[in-house]
Specification:
With 146 residues, the chain is of the alpha+beta class. 26% of the residues lie in helices and 32% in strands. It has a seven-stranded mixed sheet with strand order 1-3-7-4-9-10-11. Strands 2-8 form a two-stranded antiparallel sheet. Strands 5-6 form a two-stranded antiparallel ribbon.
Length: 146
């Protein structure tokens, strides 16, 4: 079964930038993990952040003041400087990053209300010095991928 989500398109990039992940690669990783809940995917210019954000997965908390509403995650892929493209793409494969994020999204589908009722967010950032990725939340705190 093919995962259906709304594709919000790709932002036209400035010269010297590219996207590190092809949509076909993303779809395969999501399908391989069995992800069935994803609201939107968007490709946009670089996340306004001092760290080099490559990807962001976000689930809005389902518990609201006075009501509850089922939510589905959104996934954003961010542009990167073209001169880092080869290194970042190699690191994505080496660290199996698409599979890891897809598996995290899959785990959210069956997560308890304690987890789903509050915002869940992972920002995947690239460390140029170590040529590896790290995860952080919106508050810029480094976190482990749950």
């Amino acid at each position: 079964m093919t995962l259906e989500y709304e594709f919000w398109g790709r932002t036209k990039l400035l010269k010297g930038y590219t996207y590190p992940i092809q949509r076909g690669e993303l779809n395969k990783a999501l399908e391989d993990a069995g992800v069935s809940e994803l609201e939107t995917v968007t490709y946009s210019s670089n996340y306004d952040d001092k760290d080099l954000a490559v990807m962001r997965a976000f689930l809005a908390g389902e518990s609201r003041n006075g009501y509850w509403m089922k939510q589905e995650p959104v996934l954003s892929i961010y542009s990167i400087p073209s001169h880092l493209s080869i290194a970042i793409k190699q690191a994505l494969k080496k660290e199996n990053m698409l599979s890891r994020i897809s598996e995290w999204l899959k785990r959210l589908e069956s997560a308890s209300n304690v987890i789903r009722d509050v915002n869940q967010e992972i920002i995947v950032c690239y460390n140029q010095k170590t040529e590896t990725f790290f995860f952080k939340n919106k508050k810029n705190k480094r976190v482990k991928l749950p």
